Structure formats: C-alpha cells, structure tokens
Amino acid sequence: MSSIVTYIGLSLVLFAIGAVGVCIRRNAIVVFMCIEMMLNAVNLAFVAFSKLQGNLDGQVAVFFVMVIAAAESAIGLAVIISVFRSLVSVETSDAAQLKW
Amino acid sequence: MTFMGFVFSAIALAAALGVVFNRNPLYSAFSLIVQLLAMAGLYSVLGAHFLAVTQVVVYAGAIMVLVLFVLMLLNLKSESGRKLGIVKPLVALGVGFSVVATVFPAVVAQFKDISLMTLQENLWKSEGGVKAIGQEIYGRYIVQFELSSLVLLIGIVGAIMLSKRKRIVIGPREGGLGGKQ
User: Fold this and answer.
1) Model pTM above 0.90
2) Does one domain contain both B140 and B69?
3) Structure ipTM
4) Bridge partner list, A91
5) Which terminus of chain A has fewer CB atoms gathered within 10 Å of its CB, N or C?
C-alpha cells in the first residue's frame, strides 16, 4: 500500500511543480513545457492506479493522453510561432490585446 | 517502492524543479527531457513496459525535438535581464505545496480499507506488455483508437493552417458574388 501511495504523492508534487511553473514563468514555450509536465504527472497517477487495480484500463488511458498530447504540442507550437510572427515576442505578458 | 523507483523519483523531481527555475528556455527544455526519461523509468518500474517505450519515443523523442526546433527557430534570449524577484517564486511554491498538503491526506485516506494482501497479489498481475495493451486497444477501445487517429489528422491540418505564412481569405473574394454590383 505504501508503494502506491508514494507514487500518488510523487504525482501530486510533480503536478504542483508544473502548476507553479505555469503561474510564475512568462515565456510561452516554458509554460507549454510545464503543461506537458503536468500531463505526465497525471499519467504517472494513471499507471499507479492501473497497478493498484490489476488491470490495463489506466495504461490505455495513458496511451490516449499521449496521443492527445502529441496533437496538442503540434497545434500549441504552431500558435506560439504565429504569435511570435505578429508580436516578435513569446512573452505571455506581451500578448495582452484581449485584456480589458 | 523499489530502489530504482526512488532513484527515478529523485531524478524526476530534481529535473522538474530545473524546468521551472532555469532562466534559459533551452536549459528548461533539456531538464524536461531528463524528467520525461525518468518518468519512462518509473513506468518501467511499475510494469508498464509499452508505455515506457512510448514515452521515450513520443515525448522525449518527437515532442521535445519539436520544442527544441521551435526554440532554435525563434532564437530566444535568456530571461537573465529580467528579475523574477524572490517573493513570487516563494509564494508560488507555498501555494503549490499547500495544495499538495491538502489533497494528499484525502487521497491516502481512500486506501485505508484496502488490505495489504490484495494489493500484493495485484502488484505484479498487470503486465503492460505490447501484446496485452494491443489486445485492450484493438478490442474494447477500438472506437476510441479510431477517433484518436481523427484527432491526430485534425491536429496536422490545424498546425499547417496556423503556421502558413500567407493569409487565407475566407468568404467571397473580389470578382465573386460579393464583388458584383
């Protein structure tokens, strides 16, 4: 039992570190990488629960998360490039046109 | 948790902190590669061998190559000129770990009534080899698998549309229906 709980705790800490990175970093690419890290933390929790339950449903869920993350990274980086083309910057504080 | 589990956990935690607190985005990217490889090691420790290989190929290979390629194309400078301050990261870390300290006991409390015996029995039952995962994906999850290929197709089309340099005119052009009067 302690084994699974340790993995869940590690997953929580990694998710919190990723969320902190999303909050305090201003570079859009670093924010993107922190989002990938949060996805990975959730994947670790999925694998640990799959181990706990003794079936493969969690691992299949991780597989689909990886597929979505691949599509998301392609689109996200394309968005970052097109923002860089119009603003000549990838700082999140510079893209504030919609800010009221 | 085995010895290798502790080793990979320590590497993953250190590399995750490196991603957040490096000033240079390039060093953050390399830290993230180390973190993803450590996560692949953790999957392998947990018996998910197929996911470990997929993690190395898809995440540490394809996605991180894409990120490094974009970093190289944009030619970003390090943020060393801009001071982040010491208060903001400390406040953010405090908030993050208070979230962990709130959620973790609630998660642990869920495992109280499960006896240690069934867990030990289950512990090595789920072998995440290629054959077992393939039987799951092509059996019960076949519809979701086909839909994920559709998601990838839409992702490809969207990435091409977004990164095209020429603007695409939507709607009636000159000489079309809107131009006649």
Assistant:
1) no
2) no
3) 0.92
4) A27
5) C
